[in-house]
From TrEMBL:
The keyword Isomerase applies. GO terms for molecular function: 9,15,9'-tri-cis-zeta-carotene isomerase activity. GO terms for biological process: carotene biosynthetic process. PANTHER family: 15-CIS-ZETA-CAROTENE ISOMERASE, CHLOROPLASTIC. GO terms for cellular component: chloroplast; membrane. Residues 135-354 form the NnrU domain. This is 15-cis-zeta-carotene isomerase. The chain crosses the membrane at residues 92-111, 134-153, 165-186, 206-227, 332-351. It comes from the Eukaryota. It is a multi-pass membrane protein. It is found in: Membrane. The keyword Nuclease does not apply.
Length: 363
C-alpha cells in the first residue's frame, strides 16, 4: 500500500488540498496500527508502525496488495509451510527419540496390564454406573475438562515452568486420558441400544468413508508444527490464516462433528450417540475457548482474522469476507497436508489392527 502511494505521488509533490478527500489505507495491518498524520507531504512517506506488544507481525507473512487487488494482506501466519532447506536434521532426530520415549513411558505407566494404571482408571470410572453410555460420557467429560483446562491455563503455566515443560505436562496428562476414552469406545461401540441399522443401505458406506476421510483431514492441523508438539521447538500459540483456515477457522471442531456424524450413522446405537454428544460438546466449547485465547494473545490482529474467516465452513467465502487467492490450491500442495492424507488412508486400512489392539487391553 505504501509503495503504491509513493509511485503515484513523487517525493517532490505538493501537499494535498485539505478539501480533497485523501486515500484511506486498505491493509488490515495498516488499519490496526496506522496513526493519521498531519496533511503534509511527509505523511505519505511515513512508514506505519507495528505494535510492539505483539510478536505476531515479526512472524507473519505480509503479502503486499495494491489498490484494487482482490487479495488482502495476511495478518496471521501462513499455515502448513515446510521448507526443507530451513529444517534441521538434528531436530527431527530429537523428535524421533522423544516420540519413542513418550510411547515407551505411555506403555509402561498406562497401557501395560502389569505396571500401568489404564485399566484401574477405566474400572474406577465404570464403577460409577452400569450404563456404557454414562461411562462413555464420563470418560469424555474427564478428558475434556483436563484438556481444555490445561489449555486455558497455558499462558500462566508457561510463565511458571516454561513453554517446553508445560507442553510435556499437557501431553503427559492428556494422552493417557484420550487413549482410555478411544479404547473404551472401540471396545463398547456395539454394546448400546441399537437405534437403526443403515450399514446395508445403498451408498451409505461410501458416504461414511468420504466423511471420515474429510474429518481426519480437518482434525489434524497440529501437523503444521510437529516439532513444537514434541517440544523440540519452543511451543507457540499460532494464529494460522491460510489453507484450511480460509474455509473454517476451527477445522478440528468441523472434523470432529463430521467424524461423529459418520460413526453415528454407521453404528447407529446409543453408545455412539453418547460419545458423539460428548465429543461435539467438547469441541464446541473449544471454539469459544480457542477464540478467547487468541483474542487475549493477539488482540486486534485476531479480530481482523476473525472478521474475514468463519466457524461455519465456507460462510466467510460465500458472503465475501474471505477473498481466495487465484492459486489457492497451492496452499494445500504442502508436505503437512500430504502427510495428513497418507495418515488418514493408513488409519482406515489399520482399523482391524486398532480393534484387535483395543480388544486385547480389555478396558
Amino acid at each position: 500500500m505504501a509503495s503504491s502511494l509513493l509511485l503515484s505521488c513523487p517525493v517532490s509533490c505538493s501537499p494535498p488540498n485539505p478539501t480533497t478527500p485523501r486515500l484511506k489505507p486498505i491493509s488490515p495491518v495498516t488499519l490496526l496500527h496506522y496513526q493519521p498524520a498531519p496533511a503534509t507531504a511527509s505523511a505519505f512517506l511515513r512508514t506505519p508502525s507495528l505494535s510492539s506488544n505483539s510478536s505476531l507481525f515479526s512472524r507473519a507473512i505480509l503479502t503486499r496488495a495494491s489498490i484494487g487487488d482482490a487479495e488482502e494482506p495476511l495478518v496471521g501466519e501462513d499455515s502448513a509451510v515446510f521448507d526443507l532447506e530451513k529444517e534441521s536434521a538434528l531436530s527431527w532426530v530429537y523428535f524421533t527419540i522423544i516420540l519413542g520415549v513418550v510411547l515407551f513411558v505411555l506403555d509402561v505407566v498406562w497401557i501395560d496390564g502389569s505396571t500401568g494404571f489404564g485399566k484401574a482408571y477405566i474400572d474406577a470410572v465404570s464403577s460409577l454406573s452400569d450404563s456404557h453410555e454414562i461411562v462413555m460420557l464420563l470418560l469424555t467429560l474427564i478428558f475434556a475438562t483436563v484438556h481444555s483446562g490445561l489449555a486455558s491455563l497455558r499462558q500462566t503455566g508457561e510463565k511458571l515452568i516454561g513453554e517446553r515443560a508445560y507442553r510435556v505436562l499437557f501431553a503427559g496428562v492428556s494422552l493417557p486420558l484420550a487413549l482410555s476414552t478411544i479404547v473404551y469406545f472401540i471396545n463398547h461401540r456395539y454394546d448400546g441400544l441399537q437405534l437403526w441399522d443403515l450399514q446395508s443401505a445403498p451408498v451409505v458406506h461410501q458416504i461414511v468413508w468420504l466423511s471420515n476421510f474429510i474429518s481426519f483431514f480437518l482434525l489434524y492441523p497440529s501437523t503444521f508444527n510437529l516439532l513444537e508438539v514434541a517440544a523440540v521447538d519452543k511451543p507457540k500459540l499460532h494464529l494460522w490464516e491460510t489453507g484450511i483456515m480460509r474455509i473454517t477457522r476451527h477445522p478440528q471442531m468441523v472434523g470432529q462433528v463430521l467424524w461423529c456424524l459418520a460413526h453415528t450413522i454407521w453404528i447407529g446405537n446409543s453408545v455412539t450417540v453418547a460419545a458423539s454428544v460428548g465429543l461435539i460438546g467438547h469441541h464446541l466449547f473449544g471454539v469459544w475457548n480457542g477464540d478467547r485465547r487468541l483474542a487475549e494473545k493477539y488482540g486486534e490482529a485476531f479480530e481482523e482474522v476473525k472478521r474475514r474467516t468463519s466457524v461455519v465452513p465456507f460462510a466467510a467465502i460465500l458472503d465475501g469476507r474471505q477473498k481466495l487467492p487465484k492459486d489457492y490450491y497451492k496452499e494445500f500442495i504442502r508436505l503437512p497436508y500430504l502427510t495428513i492424507t497418507a495418515l488418514t488412508l493408513g488409519a482406515y486400512f489399520m482399523h482391524p489392527l486398532m480393534r484387535a489392539a483395543s480388544s486385547g487391553l480389555q478396558w
